[in-house]
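Hi L.,

You mentioned the student needs an example of a multi-chain input paired with its predicted structure. This one should do, with 778 residues in total across all chains.
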Amino acid sequence: MCLAVPMKIISLEPGDRGVVESDGVRYDTDLMLIEEPRIGDYVIVHAGYAIEKLKIEEAEERIELFRRMAALIKTRPLP
Amino acid sequence: MEHGGGGKASRELIEHEILRRFESRPLLDLADGATLEVSSNQIVMSTDSYVVHPLSFPGGDIGKLSVYGTINDLAVSGGRPRWLSLAFILEEGLSISLLEQVLDNIQAAVKECRVEIVTGDTKVVPRGRCDGMYINTTGIGEKIEGFSLSSQNIRPKDRIVVSGSLGDHGMAVMAARENLAIQAGPISDTASVHRLVESLAEFGPAIRFMRDPTRGGLAATVHECIGKGPRGARINEVDLPFSPQARVVAEMLGIDLLHVASEGKMILVCDAAAADAVTKRLRSLPEGKEAAIIGEITDQPGRLTLVTSTGHQRLVAFPQGDLLPRIC
Amino acid sequence: MRYIDAFRQPDTAAYLLGEIDTLTRRVCSRGKSIRIMEVCGTHTMAIARHAIRAGLPASIELISGPGCPVCVTDPGYIDAAHELAENDCIVASFGDMLRVPGSSKTLADAQATGAQIEICYSPAEALRLSKINPHREVVFLGVGFETTTAPLCALIIRAAREGIQNFSLLTGLKRIVPALWSLLENPVQAEANPIDGLLLPAHVSAVIGVGPYIPIVTRFGLYAVIAGFEPLDILYALVEMLQQMVSGKPALTNHYNRVVQETGNPKAMQLINLCLNVQDGLWRGLGPVPQSTYGLKPAYRRFDAVSKFGLHIRPGRTDPRCGCNDVIRGMLRPTACRLFASTCTPEHAVGPCMISAEGSCSAAYRYERDA
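Structure written out for the whole complex:
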């Protein structure tokens, strides 16, 4: 019961709230669980609450690794 | 708005708000029925009642929906839409400005689709007896020469084609409900597909089946096409056109977009040899610019599968019940 | 969608499946099979939805664990929700709970006969309902693991801050680690359902961190990986686990490091500890499990529906033919249940595993039948 999506904080509102955004969808979110939220941070949103930040460097590093794997399969002969 | 019992108030409503927008001969007579001159000996007829909450949503409202919905049902049945009936059930206390907006949208939609509203009805019910406004439209169209549509005609290797992104309407309506704090969400795709259908007439029998994927979305439509057999279907996840907004909201709410309604798209099954030309033709029209081949008919009776991003297949079930936001 | 789409790439999936194949052959050289438990229901769902099982070698068996909160909720909890609705409360719930059978009926049944059951995507909507219905009592059905527990604590704090009187929580909040202990310590279980590896939850771990798993992984010598819920996350975690197996050294690796910190989310844990006490609790499938649930602390007891309305929650009745209790413990494959797809379908579910979106029976029925 743990579906959540990464979204970017685009504004901070009083009372530990903020607006998060992904691909043009904006959503009013509770940020009470986030330590020092900043505009531009990516957060993982579950049931209307940001539960943790998403670390961009780690995400990008993994994406790059996956990209290299994809390139390898293209050069690997098919079985 | 007052509750009218066929008295002066309803007469005024009909004259001031409805008749002045739709100047068709049969309607202006305010007779009990419309007489229509038909040029084809085959007509197509379809009816649908429209109930939507909220009444107005990004990209449309119940009025647009009630015109395009019935026109699309006629079109995908191989008909050229000509005439519509328009019947309202209005809740006492409904705001006149909302009714005017809905009527304006109906007026624009019938004009765009070159159909006439030829008969109608308006009832106002006491407050609490209906959710703002219900609309029923019945449409009549003339059969377009050339099509011979039947799900019986589908055969293995036939291609499944969609005219554009799927699920935008269902996600727009869900995101617009007041209890979700979504400030900007998907835009409903509410529109007519009749021009797309007309443009395909020359492909004739190469087009086996057409349907607009409303309730139950792509999954329900393809299941209805294959039935319990002898054919099945396979669709490819990577080829499915979705708008990023609909995808974000579906991911948030835990909803499978394959089950979500569109209101301005069509799905068709055609001969594999014609599939590229059919897709190209659809793409040549603005409302079909995202058309794509998304899968094919198989010989696995009644089975609809999806090839996922892992390259393997899973079942796509017939959708059940209302879509509910969920967190798992 | 960048941070979703990048984790659903066909070429990378093909590469990882190739690696899994090669590594599995090394691990299973003597006809042995590998049994991996995906602890979290969201993993169960992702595995089915992305057709991951279909791509794995036959010698890898993925077994669903006790991490579907709807499935492990005792029917007595649903009965209590019915009692609240019958007493004119507005019952607010995640959509997930609506069709789950209580002892005699579902909340959807109650809704159809006039009870006010409001479906919320976010528990914050329940607070809004309290404000617009000042003369009614609103009760939110707080079901979930730590991922959901932390937001509900934020909600309680907000309700307290705003002085809201007509809102309360029917707590059904569970902790995943005590459930794993209960499962793995059971000797019958260990005999009948030996587990080699654990695929550990993504978002529960985002809240609790890596530490709470260490004792259990060490005690039972398990290969364990914390993984995200996207298909490439799951496949890459399986590669990691198989590499651990090749080296023969059980370990605990955090592969979802873009979200999960070693220490979890300290602010979320702080709010949980502020509002809630750890207590013993009853699980469907597992029975009573010590220290496995959360209840409101005295300072917040006014938001506890059980004490506010004097409820007595009793264990509910379940259909004796239903295999959910064994399915939840990973002892019974959904398709091996004698009710599966005959008496029990998502349209007419006998047990919660068939109705919950992430129940393993539901996943098997909707996505994997003879696929």
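You could point out the following to them. The two ends of chain B are 43 Å apart (CA to CA). Chain B is about 30% helix and 25% strand.

Best wishes,
N.
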